[in-house]
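Late entry, evening session. Most of the bench is empty. Finally got around to the prediction I had been postponing all week. Sequence below, unchanged from the version circulated by S.P.
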Amino acid sequence: MTDICWDLLIRNAKVFDGSGTAPVIQDLAVRAGRVAARGQGLPEAAAKEVVDATGQWLLPGMLDIHTHLDLEVDVEPGLPEVVRHGTTTVIAGNCSLGTCFGTQETDGQEPIVDCFTRVENIPKPVLRKCAEAMTWRTTGEYMDHFNHIALGPNFATFVPHSMLRIEVMGLEASVSRAPTEQELQAMEALLEQAMQQGYLGLSTDGLPFHYLSNDPNTEKRIPTQFASFSELKRLLRIVRRYDRVWQTTPIIENRLLGLFYFTLTSGRLFGKTLKTSALSAMEMAVAPKSGGVFLKLARLLNTRLFKGDIHFQALGTNFRVWSDGIVSPLFEELKSCAKLIAREYDDVEGRLRILNDPEWVELFRQEWMHGRTGGDFASWKTRNGMPDSLVIRDGAMLIFDGAPVAEWDGESMATIMSRVQRYKQGDASAARSDAEREAFDVMPAQLRDDADFMLHMLRTYDRHFRFYADIGNVGNKATLDYLLDEGSLPGFNDSGAHITNMAFFDANLHSLKLARDRDDNTVARMVQRLTQEPAKRFGLDVGSLDIGAQADMVLINPAAMDGWEPDKTRKLIHREIFNHDQMVNRPEGIVDAVWINGVKAWDGCEFTLSLGRERLGRALRAA
């Protein structure tokens, strides 16, 4: 009789091992949280548990390389919305924001609240609830505290530059003056220490619509954007020395300057190649060629001429973003809208005063209609895919999903406005119901354009109407090509951020679906791009099914991908941990099982008792 030597045996699976090679039908055995054996005909009698995986894919647990789950992990460390999608490793501390220095609260300032609220569209009560769980004060204490919580997926993090500046300078000084030489040296020392502790690198941010939410700084951007090129170069010299990663976003308001900053990856120009992970590669709805420009830039900088190593993060699904009134990452780019968003969530009267200010209305109309009037250079650039602004303002592209009149849901604002105009011109039949008629009656007699329509909606309903726009990867026509491009890396998912605006927890799964629609070799390459490739880039010992590897594994039913449309599985639910609604995405039947460190966390229908109660994953330190 064979002695039991394995905790788990998975039989007859189609194994995509993350190496990019063609799949094989194999058995895989696990012992003590590690892959113990792979092959064909492994003896069932040697295992405590046997799983028949005939017709299913077995692959390494996937990585989510762009999250803001550093907020959620300490209030719900199992991170269930991640795990149900087959993600077993998450990377946090992105976009210059993070929690590795604790709350950093001093003199009435709340940096976690002030920095995250508008950048990541997370309500202040949710952020304060997250901050209450933060007990550490240093980067070392932060990494160590993961040993004492019931961590679900593995967790790795960057040093966030905005928080680094706040730690040394204080919040107010970090956005009002340049650092002293002593302060620069202090930042360098803290970053050096964090590199020794295993942090992935440094994250910065250059997007022009990332504002603070604290008075009197609501018109100021987050601290990283006040840093000089010289400051960044000094800090990144440390990241280079440790062969770690610079994560960043583009400076889009000055595109030549943004391109210049990306040259920091160059070993030819700066002495040693700097691994760089930047946003983002996708087909933008109003600027379809912009993502391709970034990929061409990556190909140029990664040549022997520049000796760079840059990739642009790609989203594996359509970029659908919801808005609650004007509260959305979509609209911070417009100064008029940013002024509204800066008001506290419950300050209805404050927003209404702004909405009725003639000067503000004039600015709003100018920004809303900019590049859309048809008779100027800005409109010519828009028509040719080179708009001055990426904000979706075309009423035909703004779709109600939570409208004040229920029958509007699924219809565009342009469609509703057209009916209003007919109704106001005397066509009573344009109103299809009493509810619609009541809504039409209170609208202005003259609706010139969708700017007037939006103004009325905001004045009448404030935040209490909901709509979405697809701002990128519309119809997923080019998504797979972006995901497979050598200048990209899948993973611009923003998991844990914009909690009422977007939900891309499923983007890795949809990447696999797109690959499956082509062939098995493409699936093998996609698995590699979601597992071993990012693990190697960030220096993490995960993403493999090699003998001895940590048994982070996902069992997938590929047939369940047939007919799955991510837009139909995204929904807004109430999450008790936040006492707030959140967008999630919960496709059914695709992920049959998830193991982390050899322990089953998801069984295809529900979470096991282990998730959120036992420490399954670990804090990953860059090698």
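Two things to note before I forget:
The CA atoms of residues 528 and 596 lie 18 Å apart.
The first helix runs from residue 80 to 83.
Will write this up properly tomorrow.
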